[in-house]
Structures are given as structure tokens and as C-alpha cells.
Amino acid sequence: MDRYEGFREFLQARQQSLTRTAYLLTGDAHLAEDLLQTVLIRVASRWTRLARDANVEAYTRKALVNQHLSWRRRKHVELPSVTMPERGRSHDEATVRRLALRQALGRLTPRQRTVLVLRFFEDRTEHETAQLMGCSLGTVKSQTHHALSRLRTLAPELADLLTDVPTETHR
Q: Which candidate, 164, 62, 61, places its Cα nearest to that of 120?
């Protein structure tokens, strides 16, 4: 029996989604590839047990979040500049907004960025986000609140995108 039986299928089915999440966490395509590769090596080394006993996708996503936060604590990561670059020839408003959002996300703390990616990009519940981040529900709520407030401050030009997002996360 092949010790990696099912791993290739899992990877084929989930690689695009996992890559996208890694990119949103890191904000850099190359770092995202490194992050995902590091996590997949860990998953592959535990594949026999994981495939039998665990929700492999949940384990992999939690490992992505944990590894990302671990890297951010250990390494100095260069953040984008405070000012927006001059506009190029393209005046496509969607492109400008995407760049502004990317720059603002890059200036959030790792936990704030992670909570926004999990809550709003992956559409995770507060409870799922708390489990993936290994923290309390209250921490998810406060990190979400602080992250959204900071986004509104860092990128006021995106305020209309954040109007449907409640500023008060206590329910």
C-alpha cells in the first residue's frame, strides 16, 4: 500500500484554494508558495495518520495559519510603503482599489490580516476562525473589530467596500 495514497488527490482538489489562502495571508506570491510548500511537507509526512484520523483540509488550513504567524514572529518582513505608488497608464478603478486594499492589508498585524482573510475571504464563522487561529471567540471578535477599524483608517478610499461590514462585532 502506498503511504501517500490519497495525498495526490487531496492536493489536486484543494491546491488552488490553499494557494489562494496562503497568498492572502502573506500578500506575496513567492512567500505564499514557500508557506504552502512548508505546510504540505508537514502534511505529507503525517499523511497516513491524517487521512485515517483527521479532517485533512482543516488540519492543513490551521497549519497554514500557524506557520504564517510563526514566520511573521521570527522574520522581519518588508511591508509596502506608506504612500501609494503613482498611477500607471491604467486608470481602471477596480485595479486601483485592489492595490489600495492590498497595501492596507499589508500594514495590518499578522493576526488582524489572518482574521480578515478567514472571516471575509474564506467566509468562515467566528467559531471556525477561532479554531483555526487557536484562540478564543472573543479574540476573533476583537481582532476583527480592530482590523476593520484600522482598514478604514489606512484606506479611507475603500470605506464604501466596508459599509456592509458591521463595526460592532459584539452580538
A: 164
